[in-house]
Amino acid sequence: MKKNIKYLVVVLLFIIVIIYNNLNSNSFTDEMKSDYFPMEMKGKIYDISRIKGGSLYLNIHTDSKDDGISIRNSDFVLNSIKKQFYFRKLSNSNQCYIIKGDSIMYFDCYVFSKEDSVKIGKIKGWKPTITNQWLLKK
Question: What residue intervals traverse the membrane (predicted)?
Fold first, then answer.
């Protein structure tokens, strides 16, 4: 009998945690939807800072002011981004690209966990066939 009561309490707590997580908004996903994806940015990269957890923070000279953006993608993409490259993030999407001379690299600005992808929903990104590789600029 005592085992059944303990088991019932554990199951009820587990259900409460699941319901709480689903009803309460995730501040990370809310911020991405309201601030990050709508933003558009373009200009030359003048400083790069590594952020713990596998991200970069780029400082960019834009047309009107200096601005910054964080990028989270594969090590190949993060290691390919250098100062003085031209950077652009397209508005209302997860699409970014950098230009180096006559080459361009398209990449998704942020790579999300499956859990966060489900919470965020469909966001416009690049086709996988052209991403995360240097291509000749047309």
Answer: 7-23
